[in-house]
Design goal:
By secondary structure, the chain is mainly α. Helices cover 80% and strands 0% of the residues.
Length: 237
């Protein structure tokens, strides 16, 4: 028997038979909207970092929050689809602008980190998404309580670090936050599937959940890589 004679069955690897055809079409709309959000967010980041036409700050944060509230208050039905997509684009744009200060910090350390962080985030997001899509339905929904507890812990750590100003605590916050957001990719993906299977086809709102997961992972990965790069430079001196 030849132990090296193994045929990889890609059909089995990407088997989505547990997901109905209508839900698969819904997921296509979700991920198509997500791709557009990425481009719009990149434009928002460009406006802050390169063009300097609109700087991130309180105004951009309020604009992003306002877009989110507006989107939530706009009901989902065929007549409002274009309006909700436009609001989604506005939310993505101001979210991209909000990345500006983090991007400025990373560029000052090493501009190549941005590309590395984006590629790393894309790889993480794709791997965890495929894991959620190919796993048994509802198998990751149990993570919800643990992930929310993790968010509470992160908030507590942030409040504590206001008083302690510990670099180690900040780094721990970043690594733990990255781990938790990876878990949210699994949880949110399977939650979207379950909602769609139960008739909730609001792909715009579902896109927002995954978009925020991606952006948060990207931001935290950038900061982690930048801090590690700074530490290496200090040691080499």
């Amino acid at each position: 028997m030849n132990v090296f004679d193994r045929n990889i069955n890609l059909d089995a690897l990407f088997k989505f038979s547990q997901i109905s055809h209508s839900t698969q079409l819904h997921l296509k709309n979700v991920y198509s909207s997500l791709a557009v959000c990425m481009f719009v967010a990149a434009a928002g980041a460009y406006v802050h970092v390169v063009a300097r036409l609109f700087q991130a700050g309180l105004l951009s944060a309020l604009a992003s929050l306002g877009m989110m509230v507006w989107l939530t208050m706009t009901p989902h039905h065929p007549g409002t689809e274009k309006k909700r997509l436009a609001i989604l684009a506005g939310f993505a744009f101001f979210t991209g602008v909000g990345l500006g200060p983090t991007l400025d910090f990373v560029i000052a350390v090493n501009p190549s980190i941005i590309v590395t962080a984006f590629m790393g985030t894309s790889l993480i997001f794709i791997c965890f998404t495929l894991s959620a899509l190919t796993a048994k339905r509802r198998s990751y929904l149990f993570l919800g309580g643990t992930l929310m507890s993790g968010l509470s812990l992160l908030l507590l750590m942030s409040l504590m670090n206001i008083f302690f100003g510990s670099v180690m605590l900040f780094k721990l916050h970043m690594y733990l936050g990255l781990l938790i957001m990876c878990g949210f990719v699994l949880f949110d993906t399977q939650l979207i599937i379950e909602k769609a299977e139960n008739g909730d086809k609001d792909y715009v709102s579902h896109c927002v959940d995954l978009f925020l997961d991606f952006i948060t992972i990207f931001r935290e990965l950038m900061v982690i890589l930048a801090m590690n790069d700074k530490d290496k430079k200090k040691k080499s001196k």
